[in-house]
Specification:
The complex is a heterodimer of chains A (300) and B (519). By secondary structure, chain A is an alpha/beta fold. Chain A has two domains: 193 residues, Rossmann fold (3-Layer(aba) Sandwich); 99 residues, Irregular (Cytochrome-c3 Hydrogenase, Chain A, domain 2), CATH 4.10.480.10. In chain A, 32% of the residues lie in helices and 15% in strands. In chain A, α1 packs across α8. The radius of gyration of chain A is 20 Å and the shape is globular. In chain A, 58% of the residues are buried. Chain B has a single domain, classed as Orthogonal Bundle (Cytochrome-c3 Hydrogenase, chain B), CATH 1.10.645. In chain B, the strands form five sheets. In chain B, strands 1, 2, 3, 4 and 14 form a five-stranded mixed sheet that branches. In chain B, strands 11-12-13 form a three-stranded antiparallel sheet. In chain B, strands 5-6 form a two-stranded antiparallel ribbon. In chain B, β5 and β6 form a beta hairpin. Chain B is globular. The chains are: A alpha/beta (300), B alpha+beta (519). At the A-B interface, α1, α2, β2, α3 and β5 of A face β1, α1, α4, α5 and α6 of B.
Chain lengths: 300, 519
């Protein structure tokens, strides 16, 4: 059966200081499924070619490192680099190494430097890769930073899209990839000042929360399991920009506030330190710290 | 003498490097070295104790619910409410954890382990009408086989038809594990990183629509486990039956038990659970769990020797990077000073040793197909079989739990955070015995220690030079082809290593690297 040649988009998924939660979340994509994304033409005439992902690829050892290096060399400017996890920069990166050359371990920072320079674009998946996240929680002993800061420190100029979340919703990642295949890289005006696609991170959780009416009426849950706005139980919905209340999670089965659990603001650059303690009510003092900055970029 | 270096070991959680020395065709020596330092325990100090549930989940995105469960049990005990959790809360916690384990074990067999046994390139020979297989065939015909090649070549033993069917199941299993996570989310809020399990119970309330939605996802998963997962494990076991004799390991097994069947006993070491607490070994005698017998040794880890051989509750993390005897950031947890393996094999065999009739039937009937004795469970295939049999037992237990839920009744009780207190949370997570310990001072976390399954299994040599469980499973193994050392990766993956767990906890810095080093 003759087939039109399908356009290939090689993709390298690099895990740095990660917990693999972002990968697991991506596996939860419903439509398209992860099989559609990796095996089929996820957009007619175009397909992803996953060249490296340590959690799912068949091979191991030198052979897969070679695959990654060759993709970077042979497909210069032609592959998408996905980074999961923060980048440990302390002590010249010895806290995170991957593979070795002549018996010496290669720090992730130097691998990422090469991979970034040669990439068509970078998608920072998850709050750790975008902003440092949990890995950079105080006292941040390994000097973890996000991709944006990493690129700036090294004067590397490659288009970057941040898809934060701990983990991000699979639609946010798959939707961003599909967008790139359909119509190219997102335009600057499609991203907020934290390089997040406004399509997913444009509105406050609080704005679309089904418990918002309780807030307006001053009805607040005093303990878990009660109806009412979760503000007094520490909900960070009023300072968090994401479409969770409309999109819902895990095939629409539920979401944090839907389950009576408070939002912890996991998509925000200040996560976790500016958002914690998670179960303490936001104070007026806390709001400007976290919210003011967001309000510049999120709503327009 | 040949040195084999595998870096990274893929299809596990985290980054892992293995080096083994092969002499006369056999593994002569190997060392397991965790090389990181991230330090969730240090990051937790001084924080609100309740936040531990959220932080510790982020140690690992593959098994977050095991951590949220252990953290919550730990906080329940520190807050003095371990015997006061409403039944709705206890049962929902079981359902959330159960859903996590089912999804996780399906993922492990099909997406992490199976590619060591199944040759997916045989799909090129497929001539039928299955649209899924034809789409994978079209993918293969494009000639870009990532992520399925490169790979080890040689020892693939299944027939073409069996390989092709297993590939169809690989794709189906992607959908089934996803549905397991959806089931979890019904009561857990979302996953990875659930939000509803909290000290005092669960924030979600059971409703009839959620119960029905959970039940029918569960029924679909049970059909998959019975009709696909278990038969596939047996199919692999028949083709690779020599792996009942490979990778035996240390022979001692430890389980903390899981799934509380009674919420009124505050003592987690004797609480009635579906999977039993205790120890066993090849003699299959049951030993009572005594957490006072747990110590962490550091002779071969980069920590000051004076912190060695302490109980986790009084554990300290004092790095010593210059230590000559050290080769790992992972400490060596030991029980009564002996090496113990944890995981599905441990919880199944401890429950077997307790005389649990269903578990005995499941294990004995499986072994009888291979004319094998229970000793054969101590092997690569034994670990896969135990994982699958446990998944069945668990899934079959869950419909009755769903019917115990009482819509309209509470799932949560309130509490006061004490000024000062200590706590312990024990649960068998997906990968085995998981313990969290906390010390609360001034209503803040003064000390938080976790001893996680992969720390037990991937631990280096201890103060008495006893190699850790994975090290013991590797030593003495025959390696047929040093360029394609299937034996090594099949053994390591049978333990389902979680390097993020093993190293992030113990150590306060770094990223995700584990290493096996040869002396």
């Amino acid at each position: 059966m003759p087939r039109a040649k399908s356009e290939e988009y090689p993709l390298i998924w690099f895990a740095a200081s990660a917990c693999t939660g972002c990968s697991v979340s991506a596996l939860n994509s419903v439509s398209p499924t992860i099989k559609n994304v990796l095996i089929d033409e996820v957009i007619p005439g175009k397909h992803i070619n996953l060249r490296y992902h340590a959690t799912i690829m068949a091979g191991q050892g030198d052979a897969v490192i070679e695959e990654m290096e060759q993709t970077s060399e042979n497909r210069k400017g032609g592959y998408i680099l996905v980074v999961e996890g923060a980048i440990p920069t302390a002590a010249k990166g010895i806290y995170g190494v991957l593979g070795e050359k002549e018996g010496k371990p290669i720090p992730m920072v130097s691998r990422l430097e090469h991979l970034s320079q040669n990439a068509l674009a970078i998608i920072a998946v998850g709050t750790c890769a975008a902003f440092g996240g949990i890995a950079a929680g105080a006292p941040n002993p390994s000097g973890c930073i996000g991709v944006d800061q990493f690129l700036k420190q090294r004067n590397i100029s490659v288009p970057l899209v941040n898809i934060p979340g701990c983990p991000p919703h699979p639609d946010w990642f798959v939707g961003t990839v599909a967008g790139i295949l359909l119509k190219g890289l997102p335009k600057p005006e499609e991203l907020d000042e934290h390089k997040r696609p406004k399509a997913f991170y444009g509105k406050l959780i609080h704005e679309n929360c089904p418990r918002r009416a309780y807030f307006e009426e001053g009805k607040f849950a005093k303990k878990f399991g009660q109806p009412g706005c979760l503000n007094e139980l520490g909900c960070k919905g009023p300072v968090t920009y994401a479409d969770c209340p409309l999109r819902l999670w895990n095939h629409g089965t539920n979401w944090c506030i839907g389950a009576g659990g408070s939002c912890i603001g996991c998509v925000e650059p200040g996560f976790p330190d500016l958002l914690a303690p998670f179960y303490q009510k936001l104070t007026d003092d806390a709001l400007p710290n976290v919210g003011q900055e967001k309000q510049k970029g999120g709503l327009d | 003498m040949a040195k084999i270096v595998i870096d990274p070991v893929t299809r596990i959680e985290g980054h892992l490097k293995i080096e083994v020395v092969v002499e006369g065709g056999k593994v002569k020596d190997t060392r397991s070295s965790g090389m990181l330092f991230r330090g969730l325990e240090i990051i937790l100090r001084g924080r609100d104790p309740r936040d531990a549930q959220r932080y510790t989940q982020r140690i690992c995105g593959v098994c977050p619910t095991s951590h949220s469960t252990a953290a919550t049990l730990n906080l329940d005990s520190a807050f003095g409410i371990a015997d006061k959790i409403p039944d709705n809360g206890r049962v929902m916690r079981n359902l959330i954890l159960g859903a996590a384990h089912i999804a996780d074990h399906i993922l492990h067999f099909y997406h992490l382990a199976a590619l060591d046994y199944v040759d997916v390139t045989k799909v090129l020979k497929y001539e039928g009408n299955n649209p899924v297989l034809n789409s994978v065939k079209a993918f293969a015909e494009r000639g870009e086989l990532g992520p399925f090649v490169p790979r080890y070549e040689g020892d693939y033993r299944l027939s073409d038809a069996a390989n092709i069917e297993a590939l169809a199941h690989y794709v189906k299993a992607l959908e089934m594990r996803r549905k397991g996570q959806e089931m979890l989310s019904l009561f857990g809020g979302k996953i990875p990183h659930d939000c509803s399990i909290v000290p005092g119970g669960v924030t979600e309330v059971p409703t009839v629509d959620k119960i029905a939605s959970f039940l029918w996802r569960l029924n679909e998963l049970r059909d998959f486990i019975d009709q696909v997962y278990l038969p596939d494990v047996l199919m692999v076991a028949e083709a690779y039956s020599d792996y009942f004799q490979i990778g035996a390991g240390c022979g001692n097994l430890l389980s903390y038990g899981s799934f509380d069947l009674d919420g009124k006993n505050a003592d987690l070491t004797s609480r009635e659970r579906l999977m039993k607490q205790g120890t066993t070994s090849k003699d299959l005698n049951l030993g009572k769990l005594d957490t006072n017998k747990i110590t962490e040794q550091v002779k071969h880890s980069w920590y000051e020797d004076l912190t060695s051989d302490r109980h986790p509750a009084s554990g300290e993390t004092r790095p010593d990077t210059k230590k000559k005897t050290a080769y790992s950031w992972i400490k060596s947890p030991r029980y009564e000073g002996k090496v113990y393996e944890v995981g599905p094999l441990a919880r199944v065999m401890v429950t077997y040793a307790s005389g649990h009739p269903t578990v005995k039937t499941l294990v004995d009937s499986t072994l009888s197909r291979f004319k094998a004795s229970p000793k054969a469970m101590f092997s690569v295939l034994g670990r896969h079989a135990a994982r699958a049999l446990y998944t069945k037992l668990l899934a079959d237990s869950m419909p009755a739990w769903l019917l115990q839920l009482k819509p309209g009744e509470p799932a949560y009780i309130d509490y006061e955070i004490p000024e000062a207190s200590t706590g312990m949370g024990l649960v068998d997570g997906a990968r085995g015995a998981l313990g969290h310990w906390i010390e609360v001072k001034d209503k803040k976390i003064a000390n938080y220690q976790c001893v996680v399954p992969s720390t037990w299994n991937l631990s280096p040599r201890d103060d008495k030079e006893q190699p850790g469980p994975v090290e013991q499973a590797l030593i003495g193994t025959k390696v047929k082809d040093e360029n394609n050392p299937f034996e090594i990766v099949r053994i390591v993956r049978s333990f389902d290593p979680c390097i993020a767990c093993a190293v992030h906890l113990i150590t306060p810095r770094g990223s995700t690297l584990g290493q096996f080093r040869v002396s």
